[in-house]
Write a structure and sequence with these properties.
Length: 267
């Protein structure tokens, strides 16, 4: 019962505009750069067990995004270090704010998704996404924050990582839209969706969100000769959020995914 009350109160907080009506469009445009990056728990694939948080931070700092969606983040696990909170360390190395949501227990610590923000985090919420035990797979999550841009427009920004099992991915996508489809704020959803354009999962999300890459999308995996696009940035239909460009960064050391960078104007 307590969990249900928390869910309802959180949804109310995310769907209502503030007193100044910042759910609507702003007269002055703001430029916004967003990155999504599956960081493979900061383990460069060529290095077996090495953890290199600084390498991920360098990729982020080279692009200087305002918001970053991170997937496969370790918090105090045996493999990454019992004293290492990767979300907080990346926030420190990039000079950003962070918010982490746990998807599952792993090696005595937590594993999940996170967001980094150049702007102070006004509100945050994390949800565990459903998994069908009969299908197997792993628990997944979504982490969402509210920030206010320099033009005073508030937006939602969320990071997620869908499961490898198609049945789980579809139910996860359905729950994400259920949580956020009524929001009155512009929303940017980013992450590793483990599915390609034209799949059932992406087709479902396309009903509620607009991907910044619609055709001839650059591959994001594998890092050498990428031939699949499974990492996306997408927006809802609230307000005036316009994608100006979408780029895949050819960075082949730090992770087993290539990061995606999108530049927006937001009114």
């Amino acid at each position: 019962m307590k969990a249900f009350i928390f869910l309802i109160s959180t949804l109310i907080a995310f769907t209502l505009p503030d007193a100044n009506g910042q759910g609507g469009a702003s007269a002055t445009p703001a430029n916004l750069k967003v990155m999504t990056y599956n960081i493979h728990h900061c383990n460069p694939p060529s290095e077996e067990v090495k953890i290199d948080v600084a390498a991920i931070a360098r990729v982020i700092n080279q692009e200087k995004p305002d918001l970053v969606a991170l997937q496969e983040v370790d918090i105090r696990t045996t493999r990454s270090g019992k004293n290492l909170d990767q979300a907080r360390e990346l926030a420190r190395l990039t000079g950003m704010y962070s918010f982490f949501t746990k998807a599952l227990d792993h090696q005595g610590g937590d594993y999940g998704v996170a967001v980094l923000s150049k702007y102070p985090i006004l509100d945050s919420v994390g949800y565990l996404l459903p998994r069908n035990p009969e299908l197997g797979g792993e628990d997944r999550a979504i982490a969402a924050i509210t920030v206010q841009l320099p033009n005073n427009q508030k937006i939602l920004f969320a990071s997620t990582h869908l499961d490898l099992k198609e049945g789980n991915r579809l139910s996860e996508a359905e729950l994400i839209t259920k949580y956020f489809k009524e929001t009155r704020l512009p929303m940017i959803l980013a992450g590793d969706f483990n599915d390609i354009p034209g799949s059932r999962t992406i087709n479902y999300l396309d009903k509620y969100f607009t991907r910044t890459c619609q055709t001839n999308c650059q591959g994001t995996i594998p890092i050498e000769n990428p031939n699949r696009t499974i990492d996306f940035v997408m927006t809802n239909s609230v307000g005036n959020v316009k994608a100006l460009s979408t780029r895949v960064i050819n960075e082949q050391y730090a992770s087993d995914h290539l990061p995606v960078v999108v530049e927006f104007t937001v009114r």
